[in-house]
Amino acid sequence: MGYAIGCREAAGLSFHDTAHNLSEPLSPLIMLASCAIFYGFGIMQCHKSELIDMVSRYSFSIFLFHALVWDVLSLTLVRSHFGQCGDALYVIPLGVVAVFLISLALSILWEKFWKSLDEKLGVTDSSLRLLHLKVADIGGDKNFRT
After folding, report:
1. How many CA atoms lie within 13 A of 109 on its CB side?
2. One domain for residues 37 and 57
3. What angle do CA 109, 110, 111 make, to 5 degrees?
4. What is the pTM of this model?
5. Among 30, 80, 86, 127, which residue carries the largest CB count within 10 Å?
6. Dmax of the chain from CA atoms?
7. Domain count of the chain?
């Protein structure tokens, strides 16, 4: 142990720098933990839940909205009420819940907006028809009728 710490110090790395490197997103420990978590969720037996079904239906759009929501929240509310970085004891749990709920609400509104736009303009049908025409042009779908 003493030899390893001495080698790190000789290389110009302190113990704190090495500990920080272990928490980087591409470090082997984080990658192993991520794989273990995904494997654990993969083998887990769950009962069907309407809430989980609803959230899973919106998970991709929640993912897309969450960065924007967090940026807006951190620039407005967090810095004005908690200072530049905020107290992690309050900011992290409240921020996670707030970002999730706001992103979920935006996802639901986005889906309703897209469905109403699709009903009025037929965007999805036109896009699918165009896609099938392109496939038919290269000889893929000869039975499709426009």
Report:
1. 7
2. no
3. 90
4. 0.55
5. 86
6. 75
7. 2
pLDDT in tens, the chain (146 residues): 444 444 445 555 554 555 556 667 778 888 888 888 888 877 888 788 888 888 888 989 999 999 999 888 887 776 666 655 556 677 778 888 999 999 999 999 999 988 888 788 777 766 666 666 555 555 555 554 54
Angle between helices 50-57 and 59-73 (to 10 degrees): 70
The answer to whether residues 144 and 98 belong to one domain is yes
Structural domain boundaries, residue 9: 1-45
Are 65 and 114 contained in the same domain?
Answer: yes
Same domain, 56 and 104: yes
CB contact at 8 A, 111 and 58: yes
Look at phi and psi of residue 27 and say left if phi exceeds 0, alpha if psi is from -120 to 50, else beta: beta
Q: Say which residue the tokens 């959230």 belong to.
A: 55
- By C-alpha distance, which of 63, 60, 91 is closest to 78? 91
- Nearby residues of 58 by Cβ (< 8 Å), 6 or more positions away: 104, 107, 108, 111
Q: Are 55 and 104 in contact (CB under 8 A)?
A: yes
